[in-house]
Specification:
alpha+beta; four-stranded antiparallel beta sheet; 3 helices; 25% strand; globular
């Protein structure tokens, strides 16, 4: 495994060990100058995760945690401000993974 694969594996281990109150994360990693995006929800698929992440920067690595619902990726964002990049990615990913309610009141559009 290379450095980025090891880093992503460790971050997915950490996400899987955290309380299940939040099933997904978009976190800035200043020491690496990356953003970490991870999801364990049924709404989050690797295809959606990579598609949204790819719109916000270069995907350095993506992986699924074995024997776990967690998927994730490391992104080198287009934006220089990591906090802003993580926030924009968080908003875009939430929109991409929010389904439309039966009443049409909630959803991405």
């Amino acid at each position: 495994m290379n450095h980025h694969e090891l880093t992503l594996a460790a971050l997915l281990d950490f996400a899987a060990a955290s309380p299940a109150l939040i099933g997904w994360h978009s976190v800035q990693l200043p020491s690496l100058e990356f953003v970490f995006l991870a999801d364990s929800r049924a709404e989050g698929t690797m295809m959606i995760l990579e598609a949204v992440a790819g719109q916000h920067g270069r995907i350095v690595n993506s992986a699924a945690k074995p024997d776990s619902p967690w998927i994730g990726c490391l992104i080198e964002p287009n934006e220089d401000d990591l906090e802003k990049a993580a926030g924009e990615l968080r908003a875009a990913y939430l929109i991409a993974t929010t389904g439309v309610s039966a009443e049409g009141e909630t959803g991405p559009f």
